[in-house]
Specification:
The complex is a heterotrimer of chains A (290), B (248) and C (323). Chain A is an all-alpha fold and 290 residues long. Chain A contains eleven helices and two strands, in the order H-H-H-H-E-E-H-H-H-H-H-H-H. Helices cover 74% and strands 3% of the residues of chain A. Chain A has a two-stranded antiparallel sheet. In chain A, strand 1 and strand 2 form a beta hairpin. Chain C is mainly α. Chain B: It comes from Paracoccus versutus. Chain B: Keywords: ATP-binding, Nucleotide-binding, Transport.
């Protein structure tokens, strides 16, 4: 039972990581916290719900294609938002930046409710992932393991892009010092858009991947964004490895907490976060040198 | 006389880059001390060490007989260290008068008061200080509308509000015209002497340094190259070679 | 400028002067509408006044302390539950319990605030959000104590048995007093300190101000007044629900402040009025109120970031001070 929950926790942690890493990437480069990241996740889940029956219901490849197409669609929406709205408010008051993304949350939520109604929908799981792995007398459900593996693949792909490609070098330069990118002769706007596209893609991907394993409804946006924020706070914004660690801790704690303190697993996560914060804020003091 | 500030083996590293290596020196009470040196010499880092804004500084910084290295900036300010910043940091969206009143309210320690009496007791001091730094006529203007040199003077006045024993001015004249530099620093020197304060300032204009400083420390790459009166520094061949370059 | 000039100037800047020629007619108008209109209008006005207080308490943090709290509803909820639970579980007479609500909120603000002010900017916002979600979760799930998702109802006669109109008048008095108190705080030395830390905490620290302590005080004050609003709201409906501490209320407050106008004390009040009136009438016409709201917010952020207060200030400047 513990092991099964561990597997579930790892899967949730992995999807949380996909969301939080997008949040962190976007923040690292644009200094904008995208409150609508949970909405992107939710859209990814709903689009997958629509696409799975259209493509090849029940098959493994059908599922992954549906998820990929959904994520791409969400990414396109992200690009649309970035180029039409966000671009006008870079560098403005941080409060306005937050409110703009909150506005997007409200808009997406109502559109989703208009389209798919207020009730939960469920997404068909690929047949191949329905079963369980048997080890001794424990049955590990296959689906979370597969999603964890898929997430891990994305993580490696991400690490490869960030550390071994030209795009990654530009990205890291943009995170460290925005003037630097301009010096390298690259269009800064393009990087911002690209990062937003990538972040939205990751969120959509996470939503699509985890869609069959739980309820998909219009309330997902806020629950997901709150968890993603907690992950970012634990891991430190702009820190990819921190986000990974934070996401796995939160995912596993949630899953384990459900077993032992079903009512209070959120409280447990909060306590972890508080401890991390206090530890971190004791380690540093003061501000910039000038 | 017992020094007001003595640095002992101060060392600060940013990763592999060592910004300060084993800095030790004393500043006697009442001295006007200039820190000079090329960019990256560690002058601002040293100021930040004294003002308590840097984590991970090794060594000992004794101010009025107490090691202050681990204290947060606000505590240091209360112990009598006032400072201005390299880039002016007056409160941008407040008026000149509000800025000065903030300084006086904080200096009074009654920041949490709800009573207007705190204001009434300090408005005249604020006025006097604005007169001193020559900004009384600009009292109702927002800092964002002030010239750079006016901002620097405002900041200097705010730093004086708490009547600190030690004043740290990090490049107070950066970006000013030659005339403004001398005007500001002469005013600073006069105020410092009149109130018996100690002054440490970072300055690039050698003429200003020669005129204002009682003693000078030359820093190069995180270490002290030379120390002495302005005349001694001017005569020092090593300093000439490394820093002054014979240009003056 | 002489010392006397400066004193006069400062008195004008810092005294919490209230332009009575504007406030008195406004209060009279509220009373008159309350007197003449239907009971449902009275209830709506009561809600507007309560939300105006809630938004103004949030505005103290946002406009003056530059602390964007994404979890201010926690203190609204703590106010409501503090009051309700004191009656239901503590056996405190409702009249006395009125004081418990705001105090519970202030206590919550102290505990969460002590944690939150260790962080700045976006981390602060995230942590306040997390704190509020925790509060919400506890209220939602602790069935034995808080009644869980069904909330607590039927423990008192709503409005202490006052008529809708009577309660509206009572709320008007309380909210007016609270807003005056907040205005006094903004103008006091404490308010000046809060603004100083909000604008540049490092500068304030270099002057000798402990930034965290100032922020914590501001946080507790804001929580207290949010708690007053929550208590009033709980009395209005004679109930308390977990949603009072939910993200919805937080967003309502944030949106009100933005609509009304950041960096203006009146922003919270204007925002509450505009938001509630719009919400009431728009949702009568179309079902998708959130969609409309989102579009309005987008428009404000892109076109008029200073909100209503900014627009009206610009109008006033253009009209040459007719008002």
């Amino acid at each position: 039972m513990v092991l099964i929950q561990l597997v579930n926790g790892l899967m949730e942690g992995m999807t949380l990581f996909l969301i939080a890493s997008g949040l962190t990437l976007i923040f690292g480069v644009t200094r904008i916290i995208n409150f609508a990241h949970g909405s992107f996740y939710m859209l990814g889940a709903f689009l997958t719900y629509e696409l799975v029956p259209l493509i090849a219901p029940g098959t493994l490849w059908g599922f992954f294609v549906a998820v990929a197409v959904s994520a791409a669609a969400v990414s396109a929406l992200g690009v649309l938002f970035e180029t039409t709205v966000l671009r006008r408010i870079y560098g403005k008051d941080g409060i306005l930046q937050l409110i703009v993304t909150v506005a997007l949350v409200l808009i997406i939520r109502d559109l989703v409710r208009m389209t798919w109604g207020a009730n939960s929908v469920s997404v068909q799981m690929p047949d191949a992932l329905m079963g369980a792995l048997v080890a001794g007398n424990t049955y590990f459900p296959l689906f979370p393991i597969a999603i964890f593996a898929a997430g891990l693949t994305v993580v490696f792909a991400m690490i490869w892009v960030i550390y071994f490609t030209r795009a990654g070098i530009l990205l890291r330069a943009g995170t460290d010092d925005r003037g630097m990118v301009a010096l390298l002769g690259v269009n800064e706007k393009l990087i911002f858009t690209a990062v937003f596209a990538a972040g939205a893609f990751l969120a959509g991907l996470a939503g699509g991947l985890s869609a069959p394993y739980g309820e998909v409804n219009y309330l997902l946006d806020t629950t997901v964004i709150v968890s993603a924020f907690i992950v970012c706070v634990i891991g430190g914004l702009g820190n990819l490895y921190g986000a990974l660690a934070g996401a796995l801790v939160v995912g596993v704690t949630k899953a384990m907490g459900v077993m032992y303190f079903p009512r209070l697993s959120m409280v447990l996560i909060f306590l972890i976060m508080a401890a991390v914060l206090i530890a971190r804020s004791m380690g540093r003091q003061g501000g910039p040198a000038r | 006389m017992e020094p007001i500030l003595s640095a002992r083996h101060i060392r600060k590293a940013y990763g592999a880059f060592i910004a300060l290596k084993d800095i030790s020196f004393d500043i006697p009470r009442g001295e006007r001390h200039a820190l000079i040196g090329p960019n990256g010499a560690g002058k601002s880092t040293f100021i930040a060490c004294v003002a308590g804004q840097l984590p991970g500084v090794e060594g000992k910084m004794v101010f009025k007989g107490e090691n202050i290295l681990s204290l947060p900036p606000a505590r240091l300010a209360k112990k009598g260290i006032g400072r201005t910043f390299q880039i002016s940091r007056a409160f941008l969206h407040m008026t000149v008068l509000e800025n000065m009143m903030v300084a006086y309210v904080i200096a009074s320690g009654k920041w949490a008061s709800l009573s207007g009496r705190v204001y009434a007791e300090r408005i005249d001091s604020a006025h006097a200080m604005l007169e001193t730094v020559g900004l009384a006529e600009r009292a109702r203007d927002t800092v964002a509308d002030l010239s750079l040199s006016d901002r620097k003077r405002l900041e200097f006045g705010m730093a004086l509000a708490a009547d600190p024993d030690l004043l740290l001015l990090d490049e107070p004249t950066a970006g000013m015209s030659i005339k403004e530099r001398h005007f500001l620093m002469e005013m600073v020197a006069e105020r410092v002497d009149a109130t018996g304060k100690t002054l440490i300032f970072v300055e690039h204009d050698i003429d200003v340094v020669m005129k204002i400083a009682g003693r000078v420390t030359v820093m190069v790459r995180g270490a002290i190259l030379a120390q002495g009166t302005p005349e001694e520094i001017r005569a020092n061949d090593e300093v000439q070679a490394v820093y002054l370059g014979g240009g003056h | 400028m002489t010392a006397q000039d400066l004193r006069t100037l400062w008195a004008r800047v810092a005294r919490a002067t209230v332009s009575w020629q504007f406030v008195v007619p406004a209060l009279a108008a509220v009373l008159a509408i309350n007197w003449m209109a239907s009971t449902s209008t009275s209830t709506m006005m009561t809600e507007i006044m309560i939300m105006a207080l809630f938004a103004s308490s949030l505005n103290l943090l946002m406009s003056f302390g530059h602390m964007v709290s994404f979890g201010h509803a926690a203190y609204f909820g703590l106010g409501a539950y503090g009051f309700t639970l004191a009656v239901v579980r503590g056996g405190v007479p409702p009249e006395l319990a009125l004081a418990v609500g705001p105090l519970a909120a202030a206590l919550g603000g102290l505990v969460f605030g002590a944690l939150c002010v260790r962080l700045t900017q976006i981390y602060f916002a995230m942590l306040t959000l997390a704190c509020a979600q925790i509060t919400y979760t506890v209220l939602f799930q602790w069935y034995a104590f808080t009644g869980g998702d069904t909330g607590i109802t039927g423990f008192m006669i709503p409005r202490f048995g006052l008529s809708e109109k009577g309660y509206a008048t009572a709320v008007l008095v309380v909210v007016t007093l609270c807003l005056l108190a907040l205005w006094g705080i903004v103008k006091s030395p404490l308010g000046l300190s809060i603004r100083a830390v909000g604008q540049d905490r490092y500068r304030a620290e270099a002057l000798g101000l402990g930034a965290r302590r100032v922020q914590l005080v501001a946080f507790v004050i804001a929580a207290f007044f949010a708690g007053v609003a929550g208590t009033l709201y709980s009395v209005l409906h004679g109930a308390a629900f977990p949603d009072y501490a939910g993200l919805g209320i937080t967003l309502d407050g944030l949106i009100m402040v933005v609509i009304g106008g950041l960096n203006s004390f009146a922003g919270g009040i204007w925002g509450a009025i505009i938001y509630e009136v719009l919400a009431t009438f728009v949702s009568k016409v179309i079902h998708e109120w959130e969609l409309v709201l989102g579009l309005i917010l987008l428009a404000i952020c892109l076109v008029a970031p200073a909100g209503f207060a900014g627009v009206s200030a610009r109008l006033r400047a253009m009209l040459g001070g007719i008002f």
